[in-house]
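Hello,

Our lab assistant flagged a job as stuck in the queue for most of the afternoon. It eventually completed. Since we weren't sure the result was trustworthy after the delay, we are filing this so someone can double-check. Below is the sequence as submitted and the structure that was eventually returned. Let us know if re-running is recommended.
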Amino acid sequence: MNRTFNRYFGLMLLLVVAAELALAQQPPIKIGALNALSGSFATYGKSGRQGAQLAIDEINASGGLLGRKLELIQVDDQAKPDVGVQEAKRLILNEKVNFLIGIDSSSVALAVAPLTNEYKIPLVVTHGATPALTEQCNPYVFRTSNNARMDAFAAADLAAKLPYKRWANIGPDYEFGHSSWNDFIARLKEKRPDVEVVGEQWPKGGESNYTPYITALVQQRPEAVFSALWAGDLVTFVRQANAFGFFKQIKLFEDPIGAALESIGPLGKEAPLGELFSTRYWFLQSQSPTNKKFVDAYHSKWGEWPSYNAEEHYAGVQMLAAAVRKANSLDADAIKKAFEADGGLTYEAPEGKKWMRPADHQVFEALVWGYTTPSNEYPFVVLKDITMVPESDTVYPTKCK
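-- returned structure --
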């Protein structure tokens, strides 16, 4: 009996070793990742890189993809379109990557997208949120996270149920900020014709002095303020607004990524309490086995709790891998068909189901909102009274055929 078992065990060991040797002898499948790894958005690039690497490590540990290992080649696009294009070309021409993934800035995503046609290479966008990206109907661009319009629609649906009539805006003075506010207030007015806009404030990205904008908002006396500030801009605004007692007078409706750990982490106990914040993924939102496994694995590997950007990059790599398996090929057209087939690729991510609309390659998913509250367990505020806005409430007509 023991001799038979030993023979069986030895055979299995030889097969595992042979499989690992075969995997090691194949050239890797290269994924070129573009992220903001420096400047005011660097924490987002860091968390995105870590999420993507965790997914790649898990895939490689389970035998790789098409019998080959995955390799992540990370570059810093500095959140600048010209740098993003330059680095994307270097990844394609010099590093010979098979896919591009990532991109934190909407402007960088829009600049890089045309390269996918020129070089016939799939791009999986996991962060940049401008709706304009998927409205271009690019055959080789796939966004595996929600966009700013979906965030704004979810925000408006929630705001319509609250008693506030006098609204103002403070948002970054570039495409993302303007489109977020325009989509939000248009949707809100459809549902609540009685709302009134009393002011709009448009600080530049990286603004260091928010005093003029805060003063103007206080003087305009809104009941609630919609904000699309994020990253260091949100941190700076909150710290300076605290000095004015801003949050004792006005409710902040922080959309779409106010509860990003990259923002509420640095704020710590300075974060306002009792405010409605949203995020694309909240690591405490679900006790599902899928989410718990991801949170535990991420925390074990990196010593941090996963932010929405970490989870979106993780999910983006996993969705790309699912499309490659379905296509059984690295060919761009085969990948496109795999993402579009059977009514669009679906994936059960840590945050829940993601569904990619075949026509424009935009993912739809449930969105998270909650009220900021102090925590004894974590060094940052957490969300309570969480509302999950279902994907069906955020779907809008596509411009693509």
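-- support follow-up --
The delay was a queue issue, not a problem with the job. The result is valid. The first strand starts at residue 29 and ends at 35. Residues 2-25 form the longest helix (24 residues).
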